[in-house]
# Entry
Amino acid sequence: MNELDKLLARLDDPHRALKYMNQEDQCRTACSELIVKSLIPGTQQILRFNTAGEPVKPHINLHEVFFNISHDSDIVVVASHPHVAVGVDIMKIQPPPSGDISDFLNNLRSIFHHSEWEYITASDKGGVLARFYHIWTGKEAVLKCIGTGLYTELDSVKVDITDHIGSVLHACVSVVGFDMEHFSCIIYNHCVPGYTIAVCCGPASQCDPSWLYSWRPNDASEQIPDKVEFIFLDTI
# Structure
């Protein structure tokens, strides 16, 4: 039995991991689910559908813990908190396949607000790509936190970097149609060398109700936490 088979054997339902054709993707998916099970004792199954059978943000039915998963290349990240909704995104910082950063950014110009575009392009050529990933991961973490994912257009999300202390950036966020006043977003630049990680958190009551109210913990808090715990794992 190889290492992947050993991982799959530990899952309650290995079929989701096996939907991926690439073995590395199968490995990342299996690892992410095993991390959640280790973080949250008693986890039996990670649910991905609401009571109407519609796909939603992964959750654990009636369990008093919020969590979110992201993976890219050989890194898996899980963010969790017992009382507030969380979303996490990780991306490897790498140039586009064409190698032309200017063309790459210009093709995506329409999804960025004016302040986001100013932030990205204010850096020299070497820093533009890193700043792009700051905003991009921030947007994805926000949408994962509120439960809509990429069903919501990225240009409806605004991420404004407010301060930058060392490798940690803080941002104010907004989403069309959502009250984001009490949400926060933290972006970790090279916390894992070569990667950007964004974590968003906020009150569960302001998240998308299509997935939230079928399982929301009774004691879900409306307060922004001082800290969201997250761990990462090198899977390769």
Helices lie at 3-9, 15-18, 23-39, 101-107, 114-121, 125-146, 209-212. Residues 3-234 form a domain with the Ribosomal Protein L22; Chain A fold (CATH 3.90.470.20).
